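Hi R.,

Here's the chain you asked about this morning:
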Amino acid sequence: MPEAYIIDAVRTAVGKRGGALADVHSADLGARVLAALVRRTGVDPGAVDDVVLGCTDTLGSQAGDIARTAWLVAGLPESVPGVTIDRQCGSSQQALHFAAQAVMSGTQDLVVAGGVQNMSAIPISAAMLVGQQYGFSTPFAESPGWRERYGDQEISQFRSAEMIAERWGISRERMEEFALASHERARTAIAEGRFSREIEPFALADGSAFDADECPRRTSLEKMAQLSPLAPGGRITAGVSSQICDGAGAVLVASERAVAAHGLRPRARVHHLTVRGDDPVWMLTGPIPATRHALARAGMGIDEIDLFECNEAFASVVLAWMQEVGAPHEKVNVNGGGIALGHPIGATGARLTSTLLNELERSGGRYGLQVMCEGGGQANVTIVERL
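And the predicted structure, written out as tokens:
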């Protein structure tokens, strides 16, 4: 089977809700990383076969196939098409999978993957709620067919996070310790310049350059202990949850033929791709069976993976996953995760890929595994090999 190579990955710094990127149009946000990817790799943009971007809540500034519009806003060739996909939190990781699969199938040679999300401008779940506002639709969980299969019960990421904490016996205190480590790791990574290579500075309206993640906080266990739970009597608080934020990222995937023809230098090889489903009521447990499936299909053991990026939607999700698959915390999210760095839903997969590539190079690791819990009880797993 033909190989799929990752040539480069770039992202914006992540802006906090209402922060530096809040007023940036989503098409301009996406355009920035697409233009940067073309410039950094030196690839002929006219040779790109497709642009695949992840984005959820495709309303307003994110409507109308944001992959296509962002490419055009970047001033890149009109001959190159674009498509926008929604696999919830895993949208841009799935974009990478589609790009790699196109290359591995031999039908395409150069594909740009990535994602964009401005959560300050378009609130989370806006697409589900807008129909109700205009009286022409109801949320999926109110479908008669859904209710026949799953009953009339709350379908919520917050409920899922609580259920996971209870089932796996994860205390609030343990989650807060994990969250604190995420912030501390992220602040250390920023101070040491570990994200410098992957971040493309964004020129703001006031003329300043936005080039550092805004979300990491100087917090403490004492401060987190004062936060009210999201549900009465629950364990989940804002302090152990991913942050609402804004950002974009892009990855260039190439075939061996394209590498030779365009004089490209790959940074990694896509070793394995998996996407699996799990119980949609539990919703966020998908990374557990997906990781097991990926390792089995790849013929690898957990000890062969040098670094892991498991999206920190909630602390309970990652802690339960680590407990089940045996991934040690010292190898997981070593530069912080979504609790500290934020989770711009459609762009998070591309952010994780860029961070994973750079940390493999910095640490000298060979294999990295990236996994994401997703709405509907799904999970993508990507295993890459540093070259």
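The two ends are 18 Å apart (CA to CA).

Let me know if you need anything else.
M.
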